[in-house]
Amino acid sequence: MSKVTIDVRYFKVIGLWQYLVPESGTNYMVILNLILGILFTIQITIQMWNNILAGYEFSTFTEKFSVNLTCFESAIKMLYYCSQKTSLKFLIKSFNSNFLLCSKHNEEATERVMSKCADFVNRSTKSFMYMIFSTVTVWNALPILKCISGDCGSWQIMPSWYPFDTTYFPVNGLIYIFEFYVMVFCAALLYNVNCLFSALALSIAAQFDLLVTSLSSIPQNAERLAKKESKEEIMSLLLRDCLMDHQNLLRLTKELERMYNPMFLFQMLTSTFTICLVLVQLNEYLGASDQLSIPLACKFIMYLVFGSAELFIYSWGGQIIYDKTSNVHRSLYETGWDQASVKFRKCVLFAMTRSYRPDSLTAGKFYTVDLNSFTQTIKASYSYFTVLRGSDSKKH
């Protein structure tokens, strides 16, 4: 594989990168995480069925279901990724700095654009990693803080069901270790699936930036490269490379849309329910007590921030793809077409017609994924919360 411009070591923690690119390392991480993933999936499936069948009170049900839904979501996403190996192997070509033919037109510009992209991708993925593992750290610390305050009976991190008493030693310690693993593994899954999408979206956007730069610089590059051939011939060759690159990038965005549109729909639905249920829990705690402890407040706040940020990653990625693909049409006006041959002008005209309508990502093929969809989903979550709060207050 050609040079990869982003840091992929975080995708190797659960064996995702080794699964997609076998020559990148041994398969022991893939096998290890497969075993851990099976154990994780069994646990979450049991808890989800218990939530549905046990007939809990509404407040208990929302607390259990919101946590297990997040873990269930991570397992479903990773299973979907594994089923889309061929598509992902095609999409990660966008990580390569020399993916486009026009990357050779001006190597300094290519280095500048791709280095900027790599830095931005790495900062973004690290920021999300810090946020999600900070959330998990707070959750994992709550049983310890409860024990310090005098309540050392149950060490459960998650509101899980077990067919035995978990309040005595050493069972409570073993349950804590097991749920610690479940929370960390869930965080690792969510980090990998969400950040891989953001890395793909940003890398494809950077490739479009490189294409736009190359199109706009055709006259200058032709002037610099012209030797034996005439400037017009060089301009035609450079335009041909750019148009071929445009077609390759459109194939990437089409495959990105094909693969991710079911996941976008799934993410919008789960984020809507998760945010709504966390708000319901927060309302229940505030209704039962005038004050909310600092650790518990941090738990709810970070959970809400994480749920919103997870949705934002997909909406932001969709917005970036739309914006970057729309730039191609404008850059064609800067190709020097007004001083070029008739054949060159015709090629530019055809390219303008094709690039007039920007590409966009959708959720389920019917709902555009962009920043507007993010705000609409947040509004929907709050609307459902007010309905549930109103119906619950009528019962009392």
From TrEMBL:
It is a multi-pass membrane protein. Its main location: membrane. InterPro entries: 7tm6_olfct_rcpt. The keyword Transmembrane helix applies. Belongs to the insect chemoreceptor superfamily. Heteromeric odorant receptor channel (TC 1.A.69) family. Keywords: Membrane, Olfaction, Receptor, Sensory transduction, Transducer, Transmembrane, Transmembrane helix. The keyword Cell cycle does not apply. It holds the Pfam family 7tm_6. It is found in: Cell membrane; Membrane. One of its GO terms (molecular function) is odorant binding. GO terms for biological process: signal transduction. The chain crosses the membrane at residues 28-49, 128-148, 169-191, 197-218, 259-280, 300-322. One of its GO terms (cellular component) is plasma membrane. This is Odorant receptor. It comes from Cimex lectularius (Bed bug).
